[in-house]
Amino acid sequence: MSAKRLGIGLIGTGNISSAYLKAILGKDGMPGFPVLDIKGLADMRPEAAAARAAEFGLKAMSIDELLADPEIALVINLTIPRAHVEVGLKCLAAGKHVYSEKPLGVTYAEGRKLLDAANAAGLRIGSAPDTFLGGAHQQARAVVDSGVLGQLVGGTAFMLSPGHESWHPDPAFYYDLGGGPMLDMGPYYITDLVNLLGPVASVSAMSSRLRTERTITSEPKRGQTMPVRIDTHVTGALGFANGAIVQIGMSFDVAGHKHVPLEIYGTEQSLIVPDPNFFGGAVETRKRGREEQWQPVPVAQPYADGNYRSLGVADMALAILENRPHRANGDLALHVLEVMEAFEHAASQGRTVEIKTPVERPAPLAESLRDGRLG
Ligand SMILES: NC(=O)c1ccc[n+]([C@@H]2O[C@H](COP(=O)([O-])OP(=O)(O)OC[C@H]3O[C@@H](n4cnc5c(N)ncnc54)[C@H](O)[C@@H]3O)[C@@H](O)[C@H]2O)c1
Predict the structure, then answer these.
(1) Which of 187, 269, 304, 347 is most buried (CB neighbours < 10 A)?
(2) Average per-residue pLDDT in the chain?
(3) Do residues 48 and 121 both lie within one domain?
(4) Which residues line ligand 1 (CB under 6 A)?
(5) For residue 1, what pLDDT is reported?
(6) Gfo/Idh/MocA-like oxidoreductase N-terminal domain: from which residue to which, for each copy (predicted)?
(7) Are residues 137 and 118 in the same domain?
(8) pLDDT band at residue 371, thresholds of 50, 70 and 90?
(9) Are 70 and 172 part of one and the same domain?
(10) What is the pLDDT confidence band of residue 62, given thresholds at 50, 70 and 90?
(11) What is the 3-state secondary structure (H, E, C) of the chain?
(12) Is 316 inside any structural domain?
């Protein structure tokens, strides 16, 4: 474990903040990330920050106090998607690095604005998802990098669900602008694919919105209807710069299916990658040949056995202290945001859309591990 620590503030103490704080502070059997020295929590609802602070033995602050605190070098932004860029720009203006939940922004233009402001200020942007740093996904990356798959042909990516109104207490935002299956779940899948295959070069798509209104079936808003302002069934193809082509389906309209989340095809072997919404899961390969069977790939990489949300910001904090690039970075998140927005343009304009934001595959996590763990 590293003795180096970076002062951290956290803005947005809703649902997901609990998972971050458990992973950072080492609760529920997690090893913790001591490099993240949490100085305070804030929310536009002060009572939410106070409750979360009391739960974890931390300090609640107002947003202005947090931004003015000289001990805080980096802010973790866990607000809702439509507030990510607005809150991020405030943090940059206060001289803080920012790590944001996904998506980076709800449009490419606002994500670009955030990155430009950070570059101008000499500050860093990081962004979820960081599940691609999980042990199962890093193991899949090692399989791809070993070359055993042969020439990379393509793959499939599926997140097909009936929508969130059966369980989420307040699901209207999923069907409003900035919502939809692509912006909500696409970051996990597309980030994992870029980690495995490299940059996306082009996108083609078709999408539909068969219902213009949906009914909430979860409590406490059961029976209320919500307008649908986005397409809820999105299909298409991602053309990668290396020539691989991946078919994708993201939906809030599907009752059930039997696809695996991610498959990668090579001329010599195929690879199954587990659900990119999680850090662990089963990795499998199958060689070409009639008699061949799917074989498990043992997951030897760390961070496969728990909900390590904050792994990406721990890597970012260490990278700042060690003056090296961080993996879940703004360039990667902006590339993924451009790809997700391209699905809308490709579908509505009936054309293939070129992707322009350059991106490099992040280095495998193993290169920054000491004693098998990040500090
Ligand atoms: N809930 C999950 O399971 C989950 C999982 C992965 C990622 N995420 C992502 O995490 C983010 C937060 O999701 P959540 O479920 O925790 O949402 P949430 O609504 O439970 O919490 C968001 C919090 O941010 C606060 N907030 C909103 N706008 C703000 C602003 N302008 N300034 C300060 N505070 C503000 C709200 O008061 C609220 O406490 C989203 O980007 C979501 O996509 C959520």
Answers:
(1) 187
(2) 96
(3) yes
(4) 11-16, 43-45, 48, 63, 78-81, 83, 87, 101-102
(5) 45
(6) 7-125
(7) no
(8) confident
(9) no
(10) very high
(11) CCCCCEEEEEECCCCCHHHHHHHHHCCCCCCCCCCEEEEEEECCCHHHHHHHHHHHCCCECCHHHHHHCCCCCEEEECCCHHHHHHHHHHHHHCCCEEEECCCCCCCHHHHHHHHHHHHHHCCCEEECCCHHHCHHHHHHHHHHHHCCCCCEEEEEEEEECCCCCCCCCCHHHHHCCCCHHHHHHHHHHHHHHHHHHCCEEEEEEEEECCCCEEECCCCCCCCCEEECCCCCEEEEEEEECCCCEEEEEEECCCCCCCCCCEEEEECCEEEEECCCCCCCCCEEEEECCCCCCCEEECCCCCCCCCCCCCHHHHHHHHHHHHCCCCCCEHHHHHHHHHHHHHHHHHHHHCCCEECCCCCCCCCCHHHHCECCECC
(12) no
310 within some domain: no
Residues 80 and 174 in one domain: no
> What are the tens digits of pLDDT across the range 264-280?
999 999 999 999 999 99
Residue 375 falls inside a structural domain? no
Which ligand 1 atom sits nearest the alpha carbon of residue 83?
31
Residue 277's pLDDT is: 97
Number of separate domains in the chain = 2
CATH number of the domain within which 191 lies: 3.30.360.10
Q: Within this chain, do residues 259 and 153 fall inside the same structural domain, yes or no? A: yes
220 plus 295 within the same structural domain: yes
Same domain, 159 and 81: no
* 177 vs 271: which has the higher pLDDT: 271
Domain housing 51 = 6-127
Mean pLDDT of 181-198: 97
Nearest CA to ligand 1 atom 38: 14
- Is the model's pLDDT at 2 over the cut of 60? no
pTM reported for the whole predicted model: 0.97
The enclosing domain of 102 has a CATH number of 3.40.50.720
Nearest ligand 1 atom to the CA of 277 is 6
